[in-house]
Design goal:
By secondary structure, the chain is α+β, with helices and mostly antiparallel strands. It has helices at 72-82, 129-135, 140-147, 180-187, 194-197, 205-215, and strands spanning 2-10, 13-14, 22-23, 27-29, 34-36, 67-71, 95-98, 110-113, 117-124, 152-158, 160-162, 167-172. The strands form three sheets. It has a seven-stranded mixed β-barrel. A hairpin with a 3-residue loop joins strand 8 (110-113) and strand 9 (117-124).
Amino acid sequence: MGILLSVNVGKPRTNPWKEVDLTGIDKQPVDGPVAVRAPGPKGTGEVGLAGDRVYDVKHHGGPDQAVYAYAREDLDEWAELLGRELPGGVFGENLTTVGVDVNGAEIGERWRIGTDLLLEVSVPRLPCGTFQGWMAERGWIKRFTEHAVSGAYLRVVEPGEIRAGDPVTVEHRPGHGVTVALTFRALTTEPELLPRLLDADALPADVRATARRRTGAA
């Protein structure tokens, strides 16, 4: 069992790195409970956590990207590599966890957080220009991609309230072996892995379509 170390909600900032006016990548830990529910369709800017939203509505938000989780252990590894402190939320994650194998989670794996909230792992996070600009690290997209520790987006299966300190329990693991890390590598640096993605029924439809198109699958 893992622990939810912090719950992070975005603070709107101007976005000089992309052709949208604002970004919600600056996530800050909040005190007290935060309501989480399934957002509306992609394109509305809605995400799962109350008080948060995205502004690049073409590429972010919607049910399959309702919540973004990143492990504190992986942030600590990055902090050592980069030689700087990385507080919870700095990668734009809503949930900073400890004791949870976020990148080893299988697509379709379900996490119970607290007593009510049930989330389902949907897809890895792919880095974008806003992320690179926010981190202010030269070649950040390439470095993040090569490191292949992406964190996971999750969809909301059952809504609920969460707060820092809540337990995180894996309630279901599909057993197909298609992990967040494998999916990320298949979509970026190791296309030979793309056929494996078709074993994961819980992948978003557009990602499955991409895998089928690139592999010539019917």
